[in-house]
Write a structure and sequence with these properties.
420 residues, 38% helix, seven-stranded parallel beta sheet, 12 helices, 15 strands, alpha/beta
Length: 420
Amino acid sequence: MKKGLLLGAGFSYDLGMPLSYELTDVFLGIYNDTNVKRLAAAMSVQQPYGKDRPINKNAITNGWDLLFDYKRNNGKNYEAFLAGLQSLKGISTPTQSDRDSFNYLFVYFYDIIHHILCLYQEASYAIIYETNKQWFSKLENLLSDQETWIFSLNHDLYCEYLALDFNIPITYGDDKTLTFPISNLNMSRLITFGCTQRAKMSVDGGGYFKSTKGINLVKIHGGISELEYRDSSLLCNLKLDKPASRELALEFRLSNEMAYYHGRNKIPGGKDRTITNLAGELDIISQSMLTGGRKYSRTSKIKEGEEKLQIFDDVLRRLDQLTIIGYGFGDDHINFRISNALLVNGNLKVVIVDPFCTETPDCIRQFDYDLRIRRAACGAAHWMDYCVSGKWNVEQMNGLKENCKLRTEVRERVQHQLGG
């Protein structure tokens, strides 16, 4: 049987990563009347796009007002807030100055969200992962005898960590490498990334496993460890040739220290990071994380930059079973592709694993016949055991009940590091 997985935030919940509403609470909790006024005043006098394209103070104020309105209304989805901000920076906005100002705000908030996710990644790994990884030891039960495609909507590294710790071969499909020093002040410490030319990404790419056991991992929405280089033409990921998760976690932390210094001062960056190349010169590499309301286009036609969606389409046509774990069916570009695949691939069956999914989602309800759609009201780790044994692992269930206090500890550490 040809199997594939689609992973949402629920997959990483028992490993300590936040659900959308938790991340939103942490994000919104950073801001209050005092620091917002200070930040708005500081941003209004910046010139990120040069003297000829000044920032509009009123637009900056309107953007911050949008955040406070969202906070007052108990908003629970940071992506909805970012989508609202994106609509303000669209082509219908009256002036170039307005568009620049809203884009400046969007990039600022994007960087904050990215930073929070990085803090969660490190804190959850330190506090929860070693305790709970044992409950994910049956990950192999979800895989095919040959290659298994895993499409992740998450930005974390937990699929990679589990694969390394349980000796499951895993690849991003990279077929080249790129090496960078940590900085121009530390040229001897190097990090080597695997990389893929975006325009040549395909389901038949030479870097993926074929007819052999292993995970082909595609991060549809990018990730906190995935970077874009040379005007986004190359996707770069940390190499997965590590003996265990610990080494990959250390390299992830090290990669976040990549920088370029003028004298002893670090040159700042945001979504576009300033780094150092092997010649000791300033270079630029970008975060790949997709968030907000414009992750991908709204049509089924694949456009430049949507190569990962093409792979998703192609794989769905070949699968016998897609297991969807912890995904709330909130992304239209994912939903209609699953629906289309169920229409054109008569062999495809879907298993939805989510403790909160009590009904078949509307986008695939028409295919809920002859057991083509199955639901399991449980978490990822529970299903890894049950799908083969047919029995619930009571020891595992009791162990995972201890997560509440550990997750609180993770959140408190993140908030402390944010200065809250």
